[in-house]
Amino acid sequence: MNDHLSDRIIFDDVSKFYGEVLGVNRITLNIPPGVTTLVGPNGSGKTTLMNLMTGLVQPSSGTVSVLGLKPGDAECFFREVGYCTQFDSFPRGLTGFEFMMDSLMLYGMHPGEAMRLTHEALERVKLTDAAYRKIAGYSKGMRQKIRLAQAIAHHPRVLVLDEPLNGLDPMARAESLALFEELGRQGMHLVISSHILDEVDRISDRVVLITGGYLVAEGNIHQVRQEVRDKPMQVLIRCDKPELLASKMFAVNHCVEARLHSDGGGVFLRTGDIDQFYQLINDIAVEGLVRIEAVAPADDDAYSIYQYLIGSEGGPAR
Amino acid sequence: MTAQATTFFRTLLDQPWGLWWLQVRRMVRIEVRRNLLSKRAWWVYFLAFVPTVIVLIYLLKEPHPQAAMAGMTEVLAGIMQFYYIRLGIFFGCLGIFSRLIRGEMIERSLHFYLLSPVRREVLLLAKFAAGAISALALFATATVANFALIYLGFGPAGQDYVFNGVGMGQLEAYLAIVVLACLGYGSVFLLLSMMFRNPTPAALLVFAWEAVNPVMPSLLQKISVASYLRHLMPVTVRGQDIFALLTVTTEPVPGWVAALGLLVLIAVVLTYSCYRMRTLEIRYTTE
Description:
The complex is a heterodimer.
Chain A: E1 9-18, E2 21-31, E3 34-39, H1 46-54, E4 61-66, H2 74-80, E5 81-84, H3 96-105, H4 111-124, H5 140-152, E6 158-162, H6 170-185, E7 189-193, H7 197-201, E8 206-211, E9 214-220, H8 221-227, E10 233-239, H9 242-250, E11 255-260, E12 266-271, H10 274-287, E13 292-297, H11 302-309
Chain B: H1 3-14, H2 17-37, H3 42-61, H4 69-106, H5 110-114, H6 120-152, H7 155-163, H8 167-195, H9 199-212, H10 218-221, H11 225-230, H12 255-278
Helix pairs in contact in B: 2-6, 3-4, 3-6, 4-6, 4-8, 4-9, 6-8, 6-12, 8-12
């Protein structure tokens, strides 16, 4: 296997039809390690992509490989891959601990090792106290956590998470995001779909935007934003004289909107030509009339890109 | 041996048989626990042990005259032939085996298995083994209990019939029939549950097929579990009136041929089930 491919998740011209209904159409992706967010409205094909990645559904055409492995080769594949699905159901009558142990024992490991990994995973998702209670009595957030624990317990290299923040309270969300961030830093592949873009945006290295089963854009969030040229970019400039800066900037053609920041210490500017815009800012800074403290893009996050490329209908939460 | 055959056998030997065996054992443990210890298993217990309860009541109420032993032997054969094979094991296996895959799809928990490092064929065969063990645990126990209770009532004569006469041979034959019936019906219902969202109508068709199979041409009789089992019965019971339909005399077949024929049928059904399992998709929304 080519080394370049052995650390990638690859979709090669993959289509999936459910009878007459389109799941995804001609998707080609090459996902490197790091945190990748799947963004799209309900029914856009995010879960289908994840299911294709893990072999829960088979492609109608094209091929999928994860780290050079095919889902059909279950013994090798699922040692490297963990999938926390959206399905909120469990085998009946089990405690969280039993559920984890049953799952890990199928890896062929020694019971002692399975127990150690079970405790470790439960600790990571902060569910140790409820480990010996029946899952049927868990809250939605706890069920989400036990699914996450089951997906990470065997230390996979690829973690696929379908709406992993659903049902979690703000504290648990923050803890989960910190965990995802840490796993991403460790060089793992994390593929996350979430409606809560603000939160996953912080940890995402790249986004994959899909709608109606079609790939709209993919790549590093900033690069994707740069490619959306028909939408003026918004930049926040922190400075001591925002009104003066706004008037100067507004005098040039490419600046289409200026809006003062609510704290009065900056201005949001929208420009159709980002290169000229930065040149002008440099000139103003050199002139010395306005003391510029910081310049930062204000709409190169997943939510804004989503709004620009897909629109707000049925869209994700901010 | 050709080079191709050598490569084939080498590939076969290179497979992780040890891991598969371990996974099967662990899955069987999980599945048998679910099959036998869940509240929903009560009606399979009922199907297995209702004749046992009746035989027990009969034993407690009626003293067995020695002259009735031949009659009771026929009663036992009738219970096996008309109740267990036609009804008890049939519907018991329907309940156990159709739940193994379809039940988990309805409960939306099958994906946990499909996301574990277990080859799908191994998963299917482990589930089949678990279903078979569960069904056998109930129906073989019931068969032994029925046999013991019937001959217990005859005291020393019954003991002599069992240990010095043909009794033990009959019990072995009944147990062999139970094993083959559980495996045969189990494989069929496991496949039906993968082919149909609701396997019950298809199972009722199988039930009707099994009922009319004795009057079918010889070739069609081979596609039936009961037809193979009929040739293994140690005591033949002649039905009267409507039951005569169930006991149509067919061309005699040696026991080993019948057993082998059924095992081949089971192997074919399981092979096709493995293929279905390989291509199975999780789409709970359509369940």
